[in-house]
Amino acid sequence: MTLQSIMDEVRNLPGTGEVIAVIDPATEEQITEFTDGGAKAVEEAVSRARESFEAGVWHGLPGSERAKILWRAADLIDEYATEIAQLDSINTGMPFVQAHSIVGTSAEFFRYYGGWCTKVNGIAHDVHMTGGITGAHSNMHGYTLKEPVGVVGLIFPWNGPIFNACAKLAPALAAGCSVIVKPAEETPLSALLLVKLLAQAGVPDGVVNLVNGYGHTAGAALSEHPDVDKIAFTGSTEVGKKIVQVASGNLKKVMLELGGKSPVLIYDDADLNTAILSAAMGIFVHSGQGCISGSRIFVQRGVYDQVVEGIAAIANSLKLGGPKDEGVHIGPLISQKQLTRVMGFVEEGKRDGVEVVAGGSRIDRPGYFVHPTVLTDVRPDMRLYQQEIFGPVVPIMPFDDDDQVVAMANDTTYGLAATAWTSDVGRAHRLAKRLDAGTVTLNCQMVFDHAMPFGGYKQSGWGYEHGREGIEGYMKTKSVYTQI
């Protein structure tokens, strides 16, 4: 399976809707195209998934057998790591080294959740009930069963195609579900190869089904389909709300991993060299296109100028370029649409009196490149402060004490991640309790582990991925009582 063969196969996928161009964001050139599958493709995929689920060809296997297949899938992902990384690199513009490292992390999802196939069990409980229908005292035994939720639609975004696909597919398959995979229309390439590798690993026909198309066509049809039992979505809060609305038809379960406006708190007693570098890369890596990117930085006033200067220096030193360029630190934004959005925030800030300390402009070359941008004099009422930009743009604000910075950090509708840099261990753990975020990192940033649950507070999402919570999100619990 070569790069070209995958792009050719994407081009030949059946569909009935609009022809969608796939663009290399580093060159603005078309690399392939495909036809939107739309509602027809969704209907066929859901039918295949339902048939496979009802037949029990996957969830009917012993957990140990499913585990072996998921481990084989992980081995195949490692075997094809170069091809997968090439696909995601050309499709997203990220440096190849970054894309390759993500593939290895993605494969581990299948090993981690393969281990859970034999370990998710219910509970047993002796029931001592007084009363009941007969009014008599009864000794009963109770136990619970963990069962797969059924047919699941997996909708994932363009900013980390293989990672987001594996983060959802591995627990859903470990739980015994049959799935429909819908990648973002901007990044369809690696999903096709992944589905092929799962089949090669031994996942039965009809258990994993791929559909391609726009969110408002294929994604909407999948979200509202009455024979889909659950939707798991990663993307914007705006789209997440729409999914909740259309999913209400059959009250399907919904898992949402949504946007963020994650605060980074830097105190004057922090290891500033480490904090400055981490805070800078925490927003500039992947051109800020990460849901947990530290997109608001708060610095204690005594070291404010030093931190601003340090982050601006890093912003000015980073080399931007495409996958084929040498020595590149970060790549482009994903699309013209995203470029227009990001620059719209920056231009609005300039009109509102924000000071541009670094960047603030598009790079003069083909591709959707934006210079890493550092802003000061940003007020809490500005969109720059409140809304997710999803670009390499960061406002830096001063603070004086704990109460003030916690109030500033929590002043957002989001609650995905937060970071605090301080040498005061007690203060760090007190902040962890006070910050409204599903993930808090202390004296570290952008940290991840397959066994740790990941989810958001407030409008950053519903439910949790990763860890035990990740597989239980694809299961339902049945309580059973029996007379002794």
TrEMBL record:
Keywords: Oxidoreductase
Membrane-spanning parts: none
GO molecular function: oxidoreductase activity, acting on the aldehyde or oxo group of donors, NAD or NADP as acceptor
Gene3D superfamilies reported in the protein's UniProt record: Aldehyde Dehydrogenase, Chain A, domain 1, Aldehyde Dehydrogenase, Chain A, domain 2
Superkingdom in the source lineage: Bacteria
Residue ranges occupied by any Aldehyde dehydrogenase domain in the UniProt entry: 17-480
InterPro entries: Ald_DH/histidinol_DH, Ald_DH_C, Ald_DH_CS_GLU, Ald_DH_N, Aldehyde_DH_dom
Any coiled-coil regions, as ranges: none
Short name of any one Pfam family annotated for the protein: Aldedh
PANTHER family: ALDEHYDE DEHYDROGENASE-RELATED
Family classification: Belongs to the aldehyde dehydrogenase family.
Protein name, UniProt field: Aldehyde dehydrogenase (NAD+)
